[in-house]
Amino acid sequence: xxxxxxxxxxxxxxxxxxxxxxxxxxxxxxxxxxxxxxxxxxxxxxxxxxxxxxxxxxxxxxxxxxxxxxxxxxxxxxxxxxxxxxxxxxxxxxxxxxxxxxxxxxxxxxxxxxxxxxxxxxxxxxxxxxxxxxxxxxxxxxxxxxxxxxxxxxxxxxxxxxxxxxxxxxxxxxxxxxxxxxxxxxxxxxxxxxxxxxxxxxxxxxxxxxxxxxxxxxxxxxxxxxxxxxxxxxxxxxxxxxxxxxxxxxxxxxxxxxxxxxxxxxxxxxxxxxxxxxxxxxxxxxxxxxxxxxxxxxxxxxxxxxxxxxxxxxxxxxxxxxxxxxxxxxxxxxxxxxxxxxxxxxxxxxxxxxxxxxxxxxxxxxxxxxxxxxxxxxxxxxxxxxxxxxxxxxxxxxxxxxxxxxxxxxxxxxxxxxxxxxxxxxxxxxxxxxxxxxxxxxxxxxxxxxxxxxxxxxxxxxxxxxxxxxxxxxxxxxxxxxxxxxxxxxxxxxxxxxxxxxxxxxxxxxxxxxxxxxxxxxxxxxxxxxxxxxxxxxxxxxxxxxxxxxxxxxxxxxxxxxxxxxxxxxxxxxxxxxxxxxxxxxxxxxxxxxxxxxxxxxxxxxxxxxxxxxxxxxxxxxxxxxxxxxxxxxxxxxxxxxxxxxxxxxxxxxxxxxxxxxxxxxxxxxxxxxxxxxxxxxxxxxxxxxxxxxxxxxxxxxxxxxxxxxxxxxxxxxxxxxxxxxxxxxxxxxxxxxxxxxxxxxxxxxxxxxxxxxxxxxxx
Length: 764
What we know:
Radius of gyration: 25 Å
CATH architecture of the domain at 350-357 and 369-562 and 734-755: 3-Layer(aba) Sandwich
Number of strands: 31
GO molecular function, one term: transferase activity
Keywords: Transferase
Strand content: 15-25%
Strand order of the largest sheet: 15-21-20-19-16-17-18-31
CATH class of the domain at 350-357 and 369-562 and 734-755: Alpha Beta
Helix content: 25-40%
Low-confidence stretches: none
Oligomer: single chain
Largest sheet: 8 strands, mixed
Pfam family, one: CoA_transf_3
Protein name: CoA transferase
Structural class: alpha/beta
Number of helices: 29
Organism: Actinomadura physcomitrii
Shape: globular
């Protein structure tokens, strides 16, 4: 069975980057394309940064890639030799990913214009150093978090900013880089020419955090909850008698009421959403915590299974790889490492397989990106709609189909807004007798059919793959499930928070020996949307190149595990990577946040021994080791002696003074922006550089008035993106015009509306 990218040659260059500081930005694009069938050559520095000492992420991220090592700019070797090696590889490549500082990339002569002259079909994707109105930001996750204000968007165990364990900036950069490459490859099949795409860690935050980055003229209760405040105060994670934790979820209809009855708790007068937004859940949570402390975790997981509400264990990073379900759905696989021996690692998070007949698709040579692609969006909530939004921002015509009463998330406006911009909207009752005839025409109209329904629901409502293929054998059919389409967990409802628990995200953010910390960001949901978009783009590329329909399979569980994909099993040992300390300040003396005399915080990120020497020259204290201590990787999270020395030294001056001195000495450092949610969002949408570069979408949205949101990366060239409408559609806004486009005449449209099968506005 032919993989969608079989025969493609990809070169992934990552020079001068730390795996801890920016690893997913430089490794995830090649890994995704490798899993989709491409041959990947990875070019990396022969010298590892001191920050990565003892961290084994590369064992997982680099597997299945041919490794080429070259000297970095500070290695004493001739940079021209490395550039010649990369240039020679690029001349025979289809895609070239370039990640690293400008002195490692552009100053070696690795620029798109020169590379394209040697290989006009080459797609070049650059993960650039970050920049906003305050200037450049080094490619270090911690510093991007500090500059953006993200460290104050975490409910930690103490007041003030908290170190962010989840590498959302690097993940967003890597995902948008992969999307840029796949979109350009699809276009190349029409034009015969390559092109470029670019993104950055700073833009990666905007790619993964649209649920919490938004600005409205008139707030509602739900925009206040997520765009003004930091989301629900009660995280629903509880410590059990054996020290393990469980995570609850009440997202399904009637789940909250069923849990209250099961636990013997008083009924709620106003319901789950009202209790969540009012803070009433906090009081209930205190009672529940006492109950959960009376039994072991396994007892609670068994007792609370099989109900409308959900309960999952909170695992450390990598522990999920032991779960038999992952093996059954292909999310864990064996790998033989030359040093570690037998390992268990994360398998492909998205799979694309040929399905249905047909020959190669011939496209008009003028087709720009996805301007000839029509997408039927049958998804809901947040994870599902992000995929068609990514496609819409690349020029696709996306038609969202939702119930006549509206998508469940229209009432949760920040989540709805995060995934619905730039689409047309049709309201259709899929349970009505008239729905199959409408769906059949929609299937014939669409190039892509995408949904994220529970396993089995598409079959019951008539948009399963067999039904789609009967009408359109050449469609790209994308199913983004919760736990996968088979296995013991397949039928269970899933959401972002449960996946954070299973993938180790909550435990990792909680810190050593502390309760889990839930990140109310929607990052897992949105990552799932980006991963499915990669699969759809690969499917479109394969269909245009080889012909035939394509089936795309992804899952929310796979998305969560991708964010922690550096973790693995070595035999029975869990190797999870750097461990956050109990105070949630960082991974060790060289990579954490510190307080100055004025109680203000700043972030210190020392990537190498040169920067450490400069730090020692500035602080001038006895006892600091000659080299930066390796980051802590033991679960006990023991503090390093150097941390105590630096904490004491930094308390002698204000944070701003230390930032000035350390920057002047060439030590990577950033003041921690302490922002509430409104200020955090404004930092992106009001930033002059973001506005000039077109990173902000501004539109009117009903009662909310003027809305400002981040646009998705990457930037693309040399030709500009197709124009994309910025607005969020009203319920049924395009129902009648879409039905007319599908060939329903005036009488048929009127009959559908009269029967209640559709809801819509008259076509304009």
